[in-house]
Amino acid sequence: MDDTTKRREGAHAMRPPRVLAVASSGGHWAELMRLTPAWEGCELVYATTDPALQADLAGRGDARFVAIPDASRWSRWQLVRLVARLASLMLRLRPDVIVTTGAAPGYVALRLGRLFGARGIWVDSVANAGALSMSGRMAGPHCDLWLTQWPHLGREATGASEGPEYSGSVL
């Protein structure tokens, strides 16, 4: 058993699992919110790019909210700001699990989370019916669980040894 696993198991014995749920605003956020029942019993922190979306957490228990900068591959300065904000968040929260529906903020969170010993879950957006998203393709190899919401994109249907699993859709 490695040190990261020992730390994670020790943390679970003292407190509920800490989940950092990250998504861009819009459809990514809507899909992430549909997953909320899965985190029952967890210490939950949501992070998204639109501060106004904090209102969506009304009536959802004691989940916390953090606004993060929006970024894409086309906005290098915003990516730097996003990395800095997420790294600061990781240092404070020390999440056990990071779950995301995309896009760039979720990818960055997953990659940083690995450096802090967090497990990663990527749920590719249902909007990507024809092919996996670019962020999803990039994130997949760095996840503990990589999911698609389309059966024909899952590794079971494609016969590939690598790739996302299909376990249903959130919408």
From TrEMBL:
This is Oligosaccharide biosynthesis protein Alg14 like. SUPFAM superfamilies: UDP-Glycosyltransferase/glycogen phosphorylase. The lineage of its organism: Bacteria, Pseudomonadati, Pseudomonadota, Alphaproteobacteria, Rhodobacterales. One of its GO terms (biological process) is dolichol-linked oligosaccharide biosynthetic process. Gene3D superfamilies: Glycogen Phosphorylase B. It comes from Tropicimonas sediminicola.
